[in-house]
Design brief:
The chain is mainly alpha-helical. Helices cover 76% and strands 0% of the residues. Helix 2 packs across helix 3.
């Protein structure tokens, strides 16, 4: 999985997600979508645990990226890579 073409493919797919799911559509109603998400989280333990799990794993992965960059001697890039990994957990700090 570690070749440039696969990385480009994953980046393109990731960047297309907001467009393909309608998040950036002009008639997207964020309030009703967030209310539906809250109803789903409060109504299902599985959804609540999954959301907490994804959040914790994303934060842990971002912290580990920062620690790994320190071990590689990139102390000056460590904070930037950690913040980039937290803000863009799917895409990562390309």
């Amino acid at each position: 999985f570690e070749n440039r073409a696969f990385g480009i493919f994953l980046t393109v797919i990731t960047l297309s997600l907001p467009f393909s799911c309608g998040l950036l559509a002009p008639d997207f109603d964020f309030e009703s979508a967030s209310a539906g998400f809250v109803d789903l989280v409060t109504g299902s333990r599985f959804v609540a645990v999954t959301c907490a799990d994804i959040t914790l794993i994303s934060i842990l992965a971002a912290v580990l990226v920062g620690e790994d960059s320190k071990c590689r001697g990139w102390e000056d890039k460590s904070a930037l890579l950690t913040v980039g990994s937290i803000l863009f957990p799917v895409l990562g700090p390309c």
